[in-house]
Design brief:
The chain has 11 helices and 11 strands. The protein is of the alpha+beta class and 353 residues long. Strands 1, 2, 3, 6, 7, 8, 9, 10 and 11 form a 9-stranded antiparallel β-sheet that branches. Strands 4-5 form a two-stranded antiparallel sheet. Strand 2 and strand 3 form a beta hairpin. The radius of gyration is 24 Å and the shape is flat. The protein starts with 5 loop residues before the first strand and ends with a helix.
């Protein structure tokens, strides 16, 4: 499997009292693992945070849009090129030819992940059609090629036409706490600023559920799969994915808790055989010591990684660490240097492939 290359990212991150990802009842999401309840942040929540982070780091044309309003976006593209054209009809015909359905009211039933490059390409095809007859192959080609970075990373499913699908080059695990948690409740009240003087009592009372935890977070990128979609854009996409995974944070109730943190420890492993989630390090929940959960979590992660390398896969092709807690697995260095090293490695791999 010489042509395979995977980037595994392992993160330990402490999050203070917060509710960054809640369920349908407003409670922080949890998972039952190793016989105890854990704090959980869903992969969907963190991928949304990463896509928002991409918008800060990448040009607009490299970030896709997930929307039901695909027809309206294509109408905009067509009008920008030909204001006099019947953009509404051309957009509807173009999407139909591409195999993408639009229902009554020009709105889809399901979300569709589309890149600015794909919209631009389809607009050019419909405007360039001779005699108004659209070439179905050209329309579908426009919607298949030129994916945004996040489409190539996170994938796309088009139920109407599987040829428009993208297999995700990245996988993001649900983050779980390395230890058992118990959700807590905050009782709060609010006063009416305009109430008459001397008024007694609160105008509003409620409770908010929250927890705090040290999370184990894991993601992996199939760099070969990514290169098949992005070509020469792959090294930059790998760097941005790593940076976004480390620095982003889901925004749930952040105004109430101001819970923005950065990882306590990061371990990045580059493998040619297969990706490897190290969550098994915490199947036995970590017990807090005098120094909290972070230090024993680091020790458990290092011990588990070494055991799996010894018994199954061997050492990774390359490894990088941020924070001294991972020093037994890789030499620690600042995030900037890790990002640069990973980008260089992805560039070298592309040249070899």
């Amino acid at each position: 499997m010489r042509n395979s290359l995977y980037m595994d990212i392992h993160v330990l991150q402490t999050v203070p009292p917060s509710c960054v990802n809640r369920d349908d009842t407003g409670s922080p999401k949890t998972a039952f693992y190793g016989g105890v309840t854990r704090a959980r942040v869903s992969s969907q929540a963190w991928k949304k945070a990463m896509r928002d982070y991409f918008r800060q780091e990448l040009p607009a044309e490299e970030v896709g849009k997930r929307t039901k309003l695909l027809h309206a976006l294509l109408v905009e593209e067509i009008r920008a090129r030909a204001p006099e054209a019947d953009a509404e009809k051309l957009a509807k015909d173009g999407l139909a030819a591409a195999g993408v359905s639009v229902k009554e009211g020009d709105k889809r039933d399901a979300l569709f992940f589309v890149s600015p490059g794909q919209l631009a390409a389809l607009a050019e095809v419909v405007l360039g059609a001779e005699g108004g007859k659209l070439d179905k192959k050209e329309c579908q080609k426009a919607m298949r090629e030129n994916p945004a970075v996040d489409i190539a990373l996170f994938g796309r499913m088009a139920a109407e036409d599987p040829s428009l699908n993208y297999d995700a080059a990245a996988q993001v695990a649900h983050a779980i706490s390395t230890h058992a948690v118990q959700n807590e409740f905050d009782f709060f009240t609010a006063l009416d600023d305009c109430a008459p003087e001397g008024s007694m009592g609160a105008a509003h009372m409620d409770t908010a559920e929250y927890n705090s935890s040290t999370l184990y977070r894991y993601a992996t990128v199939n760099i070969g799969e990514l290169a098949a979609h992005l070509g020469g854009r792959t090294p930059e996409a790998v760097r941005v994915f790593l940076q976004a995974f480390l620095c982003s944070m889901p925004t749930g109730k952040r105004n109430s808790y101001a819970n923005n943190t950065l990882p306590d420890a990061v371990y990045v492993a580059i493998r040619r055989d297969q990706p490897l989630n190290l969550a098994g390090a915490f199947e036995k929940p970590v017990t807090a010591g005098m120094d909290g959960y972070v230090q024993p979590s680091m020790k458990a992660l290092v011990r588990h990684a070494k055991a799996l390398y010894r018994d199954y896969l061997g050492e990774p092709e390359a490894a990088f660490a941020i924070g001294s807690g991972m020093a037994e697995l890789a030499d620690p260095m600042p995030m900037r240097q890790v990002l640069e090293a990973v980008q260089v490695l992805a560039t070298q791999w592309g040249a070899e492939a």
